[in-house]
Request: fold
Amino acid sequence: MFLIDTVLVDEALATKQFSCDLHKCKGACCTIPGGDGAPLLDEEVEFIRAAVKVATPYLSKRSLEEIARKGPVSGSSGDYSTTCIQGRDCVFVFYESGVAKCSIEKAYFAGEYDFRKPISCHLFPIRLGSFGGDYLSYQPFPTCDPAIIKGQREKTYAVEMLREPLIRLYGEQWYNSLISHISTLNPNIKPTEVAL
Reply:
């Protein structure tokens, strides 16, 4: 582990090769069994609640019924998540050619909403925790095995694949500091290759 500003970073970001392979995993990160949906920051809750309106055209009757019954958000301050259906699918999931996808993100790319998706989803398989400051840890699930294989084949590291959400969360300067530090741990990652 190492610090970039006040953020504690798992060294796995520098060493693990990872590149999402949606055609193989079928969007498994949106349907992980366990009862809780995507972890939410407190400041994301209102965006998620407001997203129901734009997500509705893409959602199944089953999802809409679950949202009507339980709401789109579960938990309480400091421990919010999206609601799940029978402890598995996030209520915002829709299926396209057998692949689980996010209806909020679909609305975002259609220009219908200005919030893309929860940062926990965007960062996956990196989890955001707190130790008094932020902590980023690498936590892939077995369903992510195709992403590890693809990452190894393409020689893509987790930190490179997650460039966009890391910049979304901490900004370009922080990301460049991260890459600069990581390049000292992993000579295969060069600051000039991923600099903005």
The first strand starts at residue 2 and ends at 4.
